[in-house]
Amino acid sequence: MEILLIIIVALLAIIAVVVLFNFLGARKTRRAEEEALHERAHGPRDPFSTADDDSVRGDPRTLKPGDLVDLRGSTFAVRGTLQLSQGGFRWTENFLDTGTGRKAWISVEDDPDLEVVLWHELTGVTLTPGPATLELDGHRYVSDESGGADFTSVGTTGLTARGSMRYHDYEAGDERLSFEDFGSGWECARGEVIDRGEYRIYPTNPSPGQ
User: Where are the domains of the chain?
Assistant: First the structure.
């Protein structure tokens, strides 16, 4: 009888210890969650961050071949992506196609704010980059930046897997004029900055490593 009582007391002590540890663990977890929530709500953050929009509408920085983009009422597929780098600065250019003859490019860069530009290639343009200003179709574009960059190509872009290029960019408000040379002479495209609410991204498969 005495042995049975000892066993019961020991079991009760074990149960009490387990309950105590569970209680302390739950309290610690709850406190960590509360602190994390407080940090998200009140901690320092970039007031102009696009993270909230990106979580709902998709992050254009992660566009890749196979993704779909709803843009101004039309659905485009990403056929290819160029990843460009100049020193420590990086940006992407994505080739879009509706499959019905409409094609375009979207460039994405953080400098420091997110800027997404919708581009259409121009043919028959006789302008040459270099001057401080250029005029095209009644618009006066001012030289913004120029230089060279290395690129890698994924999917269908019409370019080799790796290489280098030159560029010269002009701007007029939210309008852009760009010249790029991937080794066969200057190509010209006209672009416009598009608002975050004008497009939505639907990834069709996870990125490598996700």
Answer: 1-44, 62-202
